[in-house]
Amino acid sequence: MALRLHLALLLLVLGFIYRPASSVSMGKLANSKLCADKDCSYAISMARAINDFTAPDCRFINIKKGQMIFVYSKLIPDEGAGDFWSGSVYSERYVDQMGIIGYFPKNLVTETQVYKESTVEIPTTDMDFYCV
C-alpha cells in the first residue's frame, strides 16, 4: 500500500515538472482584462483590421487588413505596457486560422459591432499567456 502511495506521488510530481517541448509559458502582457462574462467565453465585439499585423511570438495572432476578428477580451494595460485585445480571426479566406485565439494591438482594428456593452474585469493568469 505504501509503495503505491509513493509511486502515485512520484508520478504526480513528475507530471508537474514535465512539460512538452512544444509548449512554453510567456510573460504576462497585463494583470487584468475585460470580458463579456466571467469565463471570457462570449465575444465582446466584432472588429475589422485596418492594418496587417505579424505575430512576434506565439501569444499573438496574425491579422490581415480588412479581416474580421471576434474580440473575446481586452487587456487592461499596466503602466508602460502595450494595449492589446484577444480575439479569433473570422474569414473564409483564412479558414486555417479560425478558432485560434491570440492577442493583437487594439490600435490596428476598428470595432464594427459591439455585442456586450457591459463587461466584467477579471485578473489574468499565466494560462492567458501560455503557448502551445
CATH-defined superfamily: SH3 Domains
Q: Structural class per helix/strand content? A: mainly beta
Q: Determine and state the CATH class.
A: Mainly Beta
Could you say what the CATH topology is called? SH3 type barrels
- % residues in beta strands: 35-45%
**What's the N-to-C terminus distance?**
37 Å
Give me the strand/helix succession. HEEEEEEEEE
Mean pLDDT: 80
SSE blueprint and pairings:
Blueprint: H1 2-17, E1 24-25, E2 30-35, E3 45-49, E4 68-77, E5 84-90, E6 101-105, E7 109-114, E8 120-123, E9 130-131
Task: Describe, in plain words, how this protein is organized in 3D.
- The chain has one helix at residues 2-17; strands at residues 24-25, 30-35, 45-49, 68-77, 84-90, 101-105, 109-114, 120-123, 130-131.
- The termini are far apart.
- By secondary structure, it is mainly beta.
- The protein is globular, with a radius of gyration of 18 Å.
- Strands 2, 3, 4, 5, 6, 7 and 8 form a seven-stranded antiparallel beta sheet that branches. A two-stranded antiparallel sheet has the order 1-9.
- The protein has a single domain, classed as SH3 type barrels.
- A hairpin with a 6-residue loop joins β4 (68-77) and β5 (84-90).
